Fold:
Amino acid sequence: MTEPVSRLYASHEALLKILAPAPDLRRGAALDTILEILAERRGMALTDLSPSTQAELIAGRSAQVLPGVEQLTALLAGARAEGRKLTVKFGIDPTAADVHVGHTVPMRLASRFQRMGHRVVFIVGDITAKIGDPTGRSVDRPQLTDEDIQRNLATYRRQVSPFFDFERAEFRFNSEWLAPITLPRFLGVLEKLPASAALQREDFRARLAAGSGLSMAELVYSVVMALDSVELEADIELGGLDQLLNMQMCRRVMETSGQRPEVIIATGLIEGTDGTGTKMSKSKGNYVGLAFDPKDVFGKLMSAADRLLPDYLRTLTELLEPEVELLLALAAERRIHPMGLKTLLAADVTATIHGFEAATEARTAFHTQFSARRYSQTPGIPTADARQTRDTSVAALFVQLTDAVPSLNHVRRVAAGGGLRLIIETGDSAQETITLAAADADRTPAELLAEHCEKTASETASSIFLRCGRHLLAITRAG
Structure:
């Protein structure tokens, strides 16, 4: 930091003082104070920073800035000199009902722009969702109906509200200007664009070469998306790195429409929590949804692969780069317990989405469940009765009763990897864990109890649980 008079600099100095003695971040006053500092930053005005420092705060969390950081700095400086607000665009297509923390990386940057005093427009692509973004796809995306889109939209605003102040930010649907567009106007846009602009895309060429086909609607998706930028006269557009080609088309269409092309800020794609190298997505079950309960947000991040921690700290929190480097160095030197960094990450993300109290409760429940290892002392575990679920498999129960298990196949994959377990806790504080076979995911709890519990602890077992990865079900035989 280079500006000793700024609020952010004062916040940075306060955090460094807390970290100086290398405190235990797994629990306690130091952790709570850091969480309070980060919560304050999420709402902190950044208008007292110079344009160069503002650009640094944005570029430091970006994978690519086009045309460059210099142009972003000049744009910010020019807006300040002219006393005008920049228009910052961020869009998302409602092709699914869930928004996950990977989507929040550009949202956090949009929040920073908002706190720098600029106009942020959150666009829901209810028209572009009907086409379906073809980026990276090998086959046509099934077309969504109006009912599909409305169902997905139902909770969008609530899910993203922790990252935007909608008293100041705008929440818009691109059907406002795309639905009434005339064919002559659209043809006028297309005639100024060479077909090669779309056909040179590597993902399109690969599909055509493989004989998968490519619809005309997909070919013009990025042009339709660009009309959002033209309508808003956007100065800046935010999006994931996978949207870079689409955003470059926005620049081109703006230029052919006589407007100054927007500055593109592309953020890196967040890797899924399983650490396999694939990006975070609901279909992979490796995501943290904004609609998850606090305990699931916290637990999913605590169970994330260790190697993801540096990237997650940089992209999912308001920690500054020197602070992240210091935390990682303290952990590498064993002056801070590595689990303390994960706790800080999980607690801050949970607090961002659900509030400080909910994050504290989730943290306490997690430590009770996974530190003490006495599941019977943990509140809120979903319960299934073995006798009343004789026709329901273990995999189906996990999907039905836990919010964050996405599919039967997810349970089967966990079971194949040795992560499906039967846990028996007895009144004398003893605990027995039985690793189940992959085929057991498709058996019923009653069958598993008959095979394992009747032989080992039929009368003495006070509590019986099934665990799939980090998810738990309590099993009763009340009848």
Q: What stands out?
A: The chain has three domains: 1-45+272-371, 63-267, 383-476. The chain has a mean pLDDT of 86.
